[in-house]
């Protein structure tokens, strides 16, 4: 898919015309802003002057707040005082640009420069609207919560976790959407949009909630991917596993034949001590239980999403090529028929009436 052409088509004619599948949403749309011409509408020109004057005033106040913050940090002020000054500077910086027509247009079209406070503010506003409602609804509706974690421990996620397939960075997987396992044969690309300034360490966990446990005729969790010590901040939202500690390498989704659609949850946990504590190398079993893993390492959920996948013929290739296993088959065994002989031919049965 040509991303630029699809984005422009989406902006004009909608998802179907742009060729965006229903299980995805486009991350970015049209990329050029045209400011209305001056001198055409006097009322518009006056409003622009007022907005510019207000922005200039707030930028000056933000600069003073930034100097005050730098002095406080340099003099060893208390964490509470520094946090209050950071919030003061952030709020003033947002006020300076919040009425800029180009900023609002960019935000509407998914173009967020997260190094600027105003875009961080608008991004959080946009996410805490409908997208967060849909995420929480599907997590509960499809029983990801509480099957995976206690909803009281998760609460309302504080960060936006976006999942994209390898090679399609502009197409975000919608929570709960169904994909082909072959589409996720390469490891997913992870983006965590944090709405705070400082960098914190996180642990990435991908879990299959519906791995069959044949002996007990039930299902269990299976860890597919665990990476610790991943740094995220407002300016570093993409996960680079090379920066982290890989505790379990990625294995693709492989729902076995005869099982219902599997739920694959991806959770990013903030590590202990406010995201400052590093995890040491440790043995992690793919048969671990996530709740126990979280309690053992003192992790706190920061972002969560999930998708689903069902068996296709490509899954058997994953078993053979990646897992080096014989593909299982949990289909219902054929019913034995008394009127069929060992040779497969029907036995003539005569009954007296």
Report on the structure:
With 353 residues, the protein is an alpha+beta fold. It has 2 domains: 110 residues, no CATH class; 175 residues, PEBP-like (Phosphatidylethanolamine-binding Protein). Helices cover 36% and strands 20% of the residues. It has 12 helices and 10 strands. It has a 6-stranded mixed β-sheet. A hairpin with a 4-residue loop joins strand 6 and strand 7. Helix 3 packs antiparallel against helix 4 and helix 4 packs across helix 6. The longest helix is centred in the first third of the chain and has 33 residues. The chain is elongated, with a radius of gyration of 26 Å. InterPro entries: PEBP, PEBP-like_sf, PEBP_euk. Pfam families: PBP. This is Mitochondrial 54S ribosomal protein YmL35. Keywords: Ribonucleoprotein, Ribosomal protein.
Give descriptors for this structure:
353 residues, alpha+beta, Phosphatidylethanolamine-binding Protein, 6-stranded mixed beta sheet, two-stranded antiparallel sheet, disordered N terminus
In sequence order, what are the helices and strands, one letter per element? HHEHHHHHHHEEEEEEEEHHEH
Helical coverage, percent range = 25-40%
- Count of distinct structural domains: 2
Shape: elongated
Name of the CATH architecture of the largest domain: Alpha-Beta Complex
CATH topology of the largest domain: Phosphatidylethanolamine-binding Protein
Largest sheet: 6 strands, mixed
The proportion of strand residues reads 15-25%
Radius of gyration: 26 Å
How large is the count of helical segments? 12
Q: How much is the average pLDDT?
A: 87
Low-pLDDT runs:
1-14
Which strand order spans the largest sheet, edge to edge or round the barrel?
A: 4-10-9-6-7-8
Distance between the termini: 69 Å
CATH superfamily of the largest domain: PEBP-like
**Total beta strands:** 10
Keywords: Ribonucleoprotein, Ribosomal protein
Protein name: Mitochondrial 54S ribosomal protein YmL35
InterPro entries: PEBP, PEBP-like_sf, PEBP_euk
């Amino acid at each position: 898919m040509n991303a630029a052409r699809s984005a422009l088509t989406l902006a004009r004619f909608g998802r179907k015309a742009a060729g965006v599948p229903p299980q995805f949403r486009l991350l970015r749309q049209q990329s050029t802003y045209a400011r209305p011409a001056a001198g055409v509408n006097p009322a518009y020109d006056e409003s622009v002057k007022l907005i510019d004057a207000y922005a200039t005033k707030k930028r000056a106040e933000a600069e003073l707040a930034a100097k005050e913050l730098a002095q406080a940090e340099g003099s060893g002020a208390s964490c509470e005082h520094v946090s209050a000054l950071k919030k003061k500077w952030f709020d003033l910086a947002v006020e300076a640009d919040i009425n800029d027509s180009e900023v609002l247009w960019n935000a509407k079209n998914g173009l967020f420069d997260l190094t600027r406070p105003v875009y961080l503010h608008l991004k959080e506003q946009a996410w805490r609207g409908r997208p967060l409602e849909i995420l929480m609804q599907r997590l509960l509706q499809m029983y990801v919560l509480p099957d995976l974690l206690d909803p009281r421990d998760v609460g309302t996620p504080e960060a936006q976790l976006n999942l994209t397939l390898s090679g399609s960075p502009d197409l975000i997987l919608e929570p709960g959407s169904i994909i082909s396992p072959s589409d996720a044969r390469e490891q997913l690309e992870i983006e965590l949009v944090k709405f705070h300034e400082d960098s914190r360490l996180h642990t990435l966990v991908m879990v299959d909630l519906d791995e069959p446990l044949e002996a007990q005729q039930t299902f269990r969790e299976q860890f597919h991917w665990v990476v610790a010590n991943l740094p995220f901040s407002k300016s570093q939202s993409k996960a680079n596993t090379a920066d982290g500690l890989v505790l379990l390498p990625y294995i693709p989704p492989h729902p076995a034949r005869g099982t219902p659609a599997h739920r694959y949850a991806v959770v990013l946990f903030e590590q202990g001590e406010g995201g400052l504590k590093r995890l040491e190398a440790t043995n992690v079993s793919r048969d671990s239980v996530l709740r126990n893993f979280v309690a053992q390492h003192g992790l706190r959920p920061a972002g969560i999403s999930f998708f689903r996948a069902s068996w296709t013929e490509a899954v058997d290739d994953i078993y053979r090529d990646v897992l080096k296993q014989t593909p299982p088959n949990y289909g219902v065994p054929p019913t034995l028929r008394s009127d069929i002989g060992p040779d497969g031919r029907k036995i003539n049965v005569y009954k007296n009436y």
